[in-house]
Every structure is written in C-alpha cells, then in structure tokens.
C-alpha cells in the first residue's frame, strides 16, 4: 500500500492517507510488461511528439477483437481519439441536432449525463430492468422513447456500474428498434476487455448487419490496462454511412490522442499482453467472489450480485438504513471512499459502487471497516 500511495493519480491523491480509496475506476495492479517496455523505450528515445497520421492501433485492435471476441472489425473504419468520453461526445454531436433526446439506461456511469449535454442533446432516461437475478435493457421502454422522438441510444456494453453483459439477442433487438426509428446506437465498450470468460460478451457491431448500419463503438484499453491518464481511445464503425460520419470529424479530434496512450494501447492489444489480461481476469474473478463472501459474512444486509464484467461492484445498502447516500457515512466513519450511488441516477439511492481492482487485503480491510459501523 505504501507503494500505491506514491502514485499521484486521482485514486491515491483525492483523500487523506487514512482513507482506503475504492471509488474511481483505476486499478492498483502493476502495468502489463509489454506496456512498461514500450513506454520505457519511448522515454529513452524522446518519442513524445504528436501521434502519426497512420498508426498500428487500428490493426492492433482488430487483432485483439478477433482473438478475444471472435470479431474482425475493419481497421480502415476506425479512428483514434483522446478518450472514450471525447469519442462519445464528438459522435453524438454529429448524429444529433441541438435539443434532440438521447436515451441513457440508469443506473449508469454518471458522466453520461454530462456527455449528452456537452454534445448539445438532452438526456432521456430509460432505466435498466431488474429481473430479480440481474439487469437487462428495457427494450419496450426504449421503443416508447424512440416512438416519442429520441434520436440516439448511448449504450454501456458491458454496463457500468452493474457489470451487466447484455445478451446478443437484446443487442440485436436494440439495433432493430434503432433502425426502425432512424436512430443510432453509440456503444461504449470500454469495459469489454474485462468481460469474464463464458459471459457471452458481444461487441455491438458484431451483432448483426442492422447493428453495423446504425452503430458506433468507442473502445479503449484504458480500464483493463489502467491507462486512463495516457489518453487514447478508438472510434469503430462498420458501414459506409457511419464511417463517413467518423471520417468527417475534425482532425483535432484525432490529434488530441496522447502519443504515450497510443503506444501503450498498441502494446495492450498485442498478443504479448494476452497472458497478462488472462491473469487479470482470473484475479478479478477471485476478487468479485471474495467480496460476495465478505459481504455475506460481515454485512449480510448488503445486496450484491456478482458482476459479469469489470472490477466495479454495485452494492445495495438500503436495508442498513444509512439513507440515500450511504457512501457519506462510510467515508466519514469507516474511512473508505466508495462512489455514491445517487450519482448514477435516482435508481442509485441507497447504493454504493466499490472498486475491487485491488488486493484481497484492501478489499477485506474495507469491508471490515464498513461492517464495524453496522
Ligand atoms: C462506461 C465508461 N465510459 C467511459 C469512461 C471514461 O473513459 P475515458 O477516460 O476514456 O473517457 C469510464 C470510466 O470509468 C467508464 O466506466
């Protein structure tokens, strides 16, 4: 932990040293060796300029998608940008007119609300449906919102904060709904490399011809490989019309990509990093189960469903009676920083989001501290 506290990014600097930081989506693991290697070499030779107009990133991502998801996107239909948020905003700006409504599916990654506004559009909320054992897209609700004029759906695939891997059938149905209403789907696939084996993750653009006609994906290695500060993402398309939209974005959207981010992303998506990623998924599998065991033993009033993807746990603490925003008391009295549920939408009342992309010791300590309050 002393070594982690030497880090100067948000996770380890936002709170005083006695607080365990399990809030923002950064991980505590060492970098994949291939990433360390290319970054060390870049520093050694002073390779710190602008990204080149032709880079190996699209090919690297196409290879990664083929190996990991059985999907072969065309590198000629991709363009880099600084981060997933920027890709979402710039695409939405192009495919909507000011004041158009964009569907989001709460509880959802809080900046989605701001990204839609930044693009000049207006958020239309269609909450996920709680099936009793998981969550799913409310396709009927989305259909009604489209009937009423919504122009786009901002999809989170897999979903943050619930860790839901949407079924390919629901994604195919979503694509049909969008197509029949002349709407588009922007699929944020930042957590895709972190879908656990066997959960059936499907990239939106791999779902059907209709999905390829109406869809844009924005992808990145930044969550799985902890590269958020290096600034690199990729906008991916798979049809003439959508490719034209992305090609039409100003060159600055591409130029804001970080050179270190690009080098690191190529290394992340290369086959050399596959064993590291497999190891990470195994670690996260153990952590998501450890958390379930700890909650059952120490905080039985908490409700938690093991996520299919990622390192974020969506925990319902309503039954503890700690109010709409239990993270407040947890920070103040247990000295554990969690992300506040209500930030994800009204459905997040009574919830917290816990980042288990860390060591079993830190997860255990955090739950012990919280349990001591109850
Ligand atoms: C679903 C989702 N989208 C986007 C982001 C932010 O990505 P970026 O830093 O590439 O903008 C995050 C960060 O946690 C996220 O969870």
Distance between the termini: 26 Å
**Biggest β-sheet: strands ordered side by side in the sheet:** 2-10-9-8-7-3-4
What is the highest CATH level, the class of the largest domain? Alpha Beta
Q: What small molecules does this complex bind?
A: pyridoxal-5'-phosphate
Mean pLDDT: 98
Number of domains: 2
CATH topology annotation of the largest domain: Aspartate Aminotransferase, domain 2
Rounded to an integer in angstroms, the radius of gyration calculated over CA atoms is: 20 Å
Which stretches are poorly predicted, pLDDT < 50 over at least 5 residues?
none
Q: What's this model, at a glance?
A:
The chain is α/β, with parallel strands linked by helices. The protein has helices at residues 2-5, 10-13, 33-45, 57-69, 84-95, 111-118, 139-147, 168-180, 209-214, 240-247, 251-255, 259-269, 274-298, 326-334, 360-371, and strands at 20-21, 78-81, 101-104, 122-125, 129-130, 135-136, 152-156, 184-188, 215-219, 233-236, 303-304, 312-316, 336-337, 339-340, 351-355. It has two domains: 2-30 and 274-371, Aspartate Aminotransferase, domain 1, CATH 3.90.1150.10; 36-269, Aspartate Aminotransferase, domain 2 (3-Layer(aba) Sandwich), CATH 3.40.640.
